[in-house]
């Protein structure tokens, strides 16, 4: 096997910002500094890892703690266990021939305020011989956001993905059978009457319950002639919450939620990221705080997504509802570049005039696919409700679009399995779903392709 090619965080990832020029405040800013230590300087992967820091980093840590009070350097990924993470990295290297960025070199420092977090991040960015990347994590953000005849996004009328054109009785696996889809977000109505029973939950079912119910409904609504019909109604959905208990209590743990899903799934399975993040952008001497970006804009999540892709697990990622030109805001994440995460990035389009973008969707050449971002019929009454028997007609955003594409991806992988073939790699599946020759709409600028499942199945 050829020597592994070292992957490394983008050079611009160091948080090199004077604290006096940025005073974060409000719900979009967490009190957590994320840092990646150089691999050869990383201490044991435990909470309180600062006690094992080598010199001169240990002396720098003591000076930091003397200025900002008692501090602790703890694991960024509290799940899965470090031994499991190390095994995942070795497996990914064996599959891909590339040496992934080591998640066991990522740590977190929790501060009493977002302002002090910014100052600490700036201070740590000066440890140039020891730290590869450092930034302030964004706080919680909203998720990116007999009824079958109304599910027009299923149809093949040049607006939908033509899921109704799949004859699952004669095209075995076309309902996603045998494929696990892990939905990563904050909450669900897991006992909604139209969802599959017994959906397993990892983490805490905490917020935006109706949103999670809507996503699972688009993906896996039961085939019972009562409600709607999920695009991949034969798949096995699992719920992974970003809200979890860690060593120091309850809190937001996006990184661990995604890593837990990576550890739980197998090649050919799918992770659906229904989360948005924020980041600081330093341009022309000024600070801009960007919100509603795709998950991979966060370095810690990028590492987890990249690892999943190397392990053969396809990540479907909502592009986010920030109305950002991703080519301008995140130019280093281009498809095919060294920093390509491998995920399928999904934008939201009009339900009436596809492929016209919705007002809030992010867009750009990094986007692989699009689908409906409005007027989606699915379970739930609103993003926050916990009703068990309600349906809505107004679900949308990149959340809805990503759920549709995740359903399409599961249907394709299910069909491939039924044909006795190896699961498609994430790259193969992304190329197939993003192939304009197999799309249901005209070419778009910055929105990617909406796949036509009947045409895609014809290529299997």
Describe this protein with a few key phrases.
single chain, disordered N terminus, 10 helices, 19 strands, 460 residues, alpha/beta, Rossmann fold
Q: How are the secondary structure elements laid out?
A:
Elements: E1 5-6, E2 29-37, H1 57-68, E3 73-75, H2 82-96, E4 98-99, E5 106-110, H3 114-124, E6 131-138, E7 180-185, E8 201-202, H4 209-220, E9 236-241, E10 243-246, E11 249-252, H5 254-264, E12 270-273, E13 277-283, E14 286-293, H6 299-310, E15 314-318, H7 326-329, E16 344-349, E17 369-372, E18 376-379, E19 391-395, H8 397-418, H9 426-433, H10 453-457
Parallel strand pairs: 1-4, 7-9, 7-12, 8-9, 12-15, 15-16, 16-17
Antiparallel strand pairs: 2-5, 2-6, 3-5, 10-11, 13-14, 18-19
Helix pairs in contact: 2-6, 4-8, 5-6
Could you say what the CATH architecture of the largest domain is?
3-Layer(aba) Sandwich
Please name the fourth-level CATH homologous superfamily of the largest domain.
Peptidase S8/S53 domain
Integer average pLDDT: 86
Helicity, as a percent range? 10-25%
What is the CATH C-level name of the largest domain?
A: Alpha Beta
Sheet with the most strands, sense and barrel status: 7 strands, parallel
Tally of strands: 19
Strand numbers in spatial order across the main sheet = 8-9-7-12-15-16-17
Low-confidence parts lasting 5 or more residues at pLDDT below 50? 1-27
The total of helices stands at 10
Overall outline: globular
* CATH fold-type name of the largest domain: Rossmann fold
Oligomer: single chain
The N- to C-terminal Cα distance equals: 29 Å
H and E string:
EEHEHEEHEEEHEEEHEEEHEHEEEEHHH
Using only C-alpha atoms, the radius of gyration works out to 21 Å
- Number of structurally distinct domains: 2
């Amino acid at each position: 096997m050829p020597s592994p090619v070292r992957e490394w965080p983008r050079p611009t990832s160091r948080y090199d910002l004077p604290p006096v020029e940025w005073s974060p405040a409000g719900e979009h800013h967490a009190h957590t500094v994320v840092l990646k230590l150089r691999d050869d300087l990383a201490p044991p992967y435990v909470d309180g890892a600062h006690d094992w820091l080598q010199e001169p980093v240990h002396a720098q840590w003591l000076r930091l703690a003397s200025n900002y009070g008692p501090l602790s350097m703890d694991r960024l990924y509290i799940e899965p266990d470090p031994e499991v993470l190390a095994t995942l990295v070795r497996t990914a290297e064996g599959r891909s021939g590339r040496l992934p960025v080591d998640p066991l070199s990522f740590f977190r420092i929790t501060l009493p305020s977002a302002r002090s977090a910014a100052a600490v991040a700036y201070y740590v960015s000066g440890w140039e011989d020891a730290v590869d990347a450092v930034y302030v994590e964004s706080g919680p953000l909203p998720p990116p956001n007999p009824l079958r005849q109304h599910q027009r996004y299923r149809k093949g009328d040049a607006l939908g993905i033509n899921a109704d054109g799949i004859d699952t009785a004669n095209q075995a696996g076309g309902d996603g059978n045998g494929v696990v889809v892990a939905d990563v977000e904050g909450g669900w109505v897991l006992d909604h009457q139209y969802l599959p029973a017994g959906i397993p939950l990892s983490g805490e079912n905490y917020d935006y319950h109706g949103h999670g119910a809507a996503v699972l409904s688009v993906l896996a609504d039961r085939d019972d002639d009562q409600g709607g019909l999920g695009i991949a109604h034969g798949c096995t959905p699992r719920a992974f919450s970003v809200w979890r208990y860690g060593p120091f209590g309850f809190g937001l743990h996006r990184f661990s939620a995604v890593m837990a899903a990576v550890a739980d799934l197998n090649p050919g399975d799918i992770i659906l990221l229904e989360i948005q993040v924020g980041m600081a952008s330093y341009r022309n001497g000024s600070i801009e705080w960007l919100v509603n970006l795709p998950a991979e804009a966060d370095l810690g999540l990028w590492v987890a997504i990249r690892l999943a892709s190397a392990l053969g697990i396809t990540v479907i990622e909502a592009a986010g509802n920030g109305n950002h030109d991703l080519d301008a805001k995140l130019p280093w994440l281009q498809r095919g570049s060294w920093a390509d995460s491998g995920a399928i990035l999904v934008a939201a389009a009009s339900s009436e005039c596809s492929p016209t973008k919705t007002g809030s969707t992010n867009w750009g050449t990094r986007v692989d696919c699009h689908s409906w971002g409005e007027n989606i019929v699915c379970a739930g009454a609103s993003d926050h409700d916990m009703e068990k028997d309600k349906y809505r007609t107004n679900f949308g955003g990149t959340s809805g679009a990503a759920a549709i594409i995740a359903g399409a991806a599961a249907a394709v992988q299910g069909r491939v399995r039924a044909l006795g073939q190896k699961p498609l790699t994430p790259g193969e599946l992304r190329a197939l779903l993003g192939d304009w020759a197999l799309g249901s709409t005209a070419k778009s600028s910055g929105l990617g392709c909406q796949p036509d499942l009947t045409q895609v199945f014809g290529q299997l």
